[in-house]
Design goal:
Layout (H helix, E strand, L loop, with lengths): L6 E3 L6 E3 L2 H12 L5 H8 L3 H14 L18 E9 L7 H10 L3 E6 L6 E7 L2 H12 L4 E8 L7
Antiparallel strand pairs: 1-2, 3-5, 3-6, 4-5
Helix pairs in contact: 1-2, 2-3
């Protein structure tokens, strides 16, 4: 593999992208601080700024780098109750899973929705202002004929790589 380019390997319907070490270093730096300047990023990964900019563009074009996101401290916004809600839909509800996900994503309290395997179908990460807000979220968004079962766990800590 040529170290200066991204190589797309089309083995199946989905494309696997193999990355050079420098691309992985770029992704690590951007994960830590998406607002880092190109000049600083280039210095940290040992590239010329123009080369670094080109590699970031290639990462975006390949779909590996999908976007840049803000890391929000929800507690400073008064949202101090976090929950992970596992959801099992009814057999009939499986055909409507996409609409259930879309509805959950529309709720202000929803941070993320994961579609998972196992006994549950979805894992919903929410942030609320108070335990009653979490209860209200469940009643308003998960009391539905397509929902067979929910189980809520409070989140006491969050750690990110």
């Amino acid at each position: 593999m040529n170290d200066s380019t991204l190589i797309a390997d089309h083995r199946s319907d989905s494309a696997d992208v193999r990355l050079a070490e420098v691309d992985l270093a770029i992704l690590r730096e951007l994960s830590a601080d998406a607002r880092i300047s190109n000049k600083t990023l280039a210095a940290r990964v040992g590239l010329a700024p123009s080369t670094c900019s080109g590699r970031v563009s290639a990462l975006r074009q390949s779909g590996v780098l999908r976007g840049f996101h803000a890391d929000i401290d929800y507690e400073k916004l008064g949202l101090s109750v976090f929950g992970m809600i596992s959801v099992r839909v009814t057999p009939v509800g499986r055909s409507q899973l996409r609409s259930v996900i879309d509805r959950l994503l529309e709720a202000a309290e929803t941070l993320e929705v994961y579609q998972v395997s196992g006994e549950r179908d979805l894992l919903v990460h929410v942030a609320c202002d108070h335990p009653t807000g979490l209860h209200r979220f469940i009643e308003q968004n998960l009391s539905d004929p397509t929902i067979a079962h929910t189980q809520t766990s409070l989140v006491f800590g969050h750690h990110r790589k």
